[in-house]
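Hi D.,

Good news: the full-assembly prediction came through. Inputs first.
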Amino acid sequence: MITIVFSLFLLTMLVIVAVAILRTDNLFTAVMLSGIFSLIMAANFFILDAADVALTEAVIGAGISTVLFLSALALTAEYDRSPPVGTWVPLLTSSALGGVIIFATFQAPRLGDPNAIVHKHVAPWYLERTPELIDVPNVVTAVLASFRGYDTLGEVFVVFIACIGVMSLLGRVRPRRDSIEEGEFEKRSDNLRHHLIPRVVGKMLVPFIVLFGLYVQFHGDFGPGGGFQAGALIAAGVILYALVEGGPRGRELVPEWFSSMLVALGALTYTAVGVVSMMRGGRFLDYSALSHDPIHGQHMGILIIEAGVGMTVAGVMITIFHAFSRRGIR
Amino acid sequence: MDLLLDIASAVLLLTGGFLVFVGGVGVMRMPEFFTRMHAASVTDTGGAALILAGLMLQGGLTLVPLKLAAIFLFLFLTSPTASYALANAALLSGVATACRNQTGKQLPEDRMDPPSAPNSENSLAAEAPAPKTVARKSAKKAAPKRPTKKAAKKPAKKSAKKAARKKS
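Then the structure:
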């Protein structure tokens, strides 16, 4: 009962925030509202007992994407210039689509219905066989890393390719230093160095954020967490440092060559685990072949590929942030 | 003993909830930016602390109160910092306060002055004899005006940046 009340409240807030995002023409407001949207969504996921997804949404949606949007806005204008489009066509299109979606929800199973199709297909098999085959307490990790290892490999490569896409758009151009003298450039860059309080508190928080990221990384077998969340958390720590100390200092902490190498290294690690398991007589990404004891092999495989996922995700976030901050503020 | 704990935690939770509510009302009702922030800080500090304390009492002798204490420590550090950053950004970008508003425009450089500056004393003195109702009306007038002032804000921002540069 209380869950339903909470869900209704959060979903109502979600609709209000979504409408507010559409109606504002100040892009900074829209970015902050989309951060709030993600936070509400994370709370919603948590109510649905999807702690792993909630953690990811909170870190990436509310945290890092807000920072990336703000960095992007530093390069563009503050206000949205809406293109002159007639209001009827979009209105009709979106109401038709909304009607289709509402119609589809009548077919959807009720929340928590044990007879729903998703609970009848492979989920019972995963729940039943995880203790026997993989023996990790968190079934989500077992499904994500082992049973559905191919899908996760695909996701890692999606992130990898997305990073390549962003980098080819933003490029690695050096800012025109010749037109601006050195000291002036430093002042125009995006740092908070003259704000003492955020600087001190921000620097104080960085190690704890990174520590928590490592905890989430290596605790993923036992509780909510894993490579995606951990990578984003560690990247958040680095980005916080770069925000309070300025982009150049951030690039000294984690150089660009290192973060972009991390991206490739993570994807490579993941693939290499698959190749090694093939060389040891199993199939691609069949971790049981990694060790003499199949369950031990599974544990090892999950640990290594989660590390690979974490490296790629952290590398991508840091690389994209560096690419934005290098461009400086107009 | 359990009953006592429950009562104590209920009192803490309800007081915390009340403070959060008061903060929310204050954010809606206060006349201008800085007083609104002041209202929001009631939520940040009093509300959050009391609710966390109430939840800690419910947690019993487990790891839960420790985790809540960690959250409290985190909030204790971050929310004043966030408030400071917000207020500082508002000050530098020249968000007008209610009392300064009536004395005409002032440059952000003036706002950086300590409160004992003769400038601000004058403005307060000029304000004092004005009847209360007038002050309230003008404060209300100022509130909806703010979004339309965007054009006026921009040059203020630039000069604020200049001031910051001079300082650093």
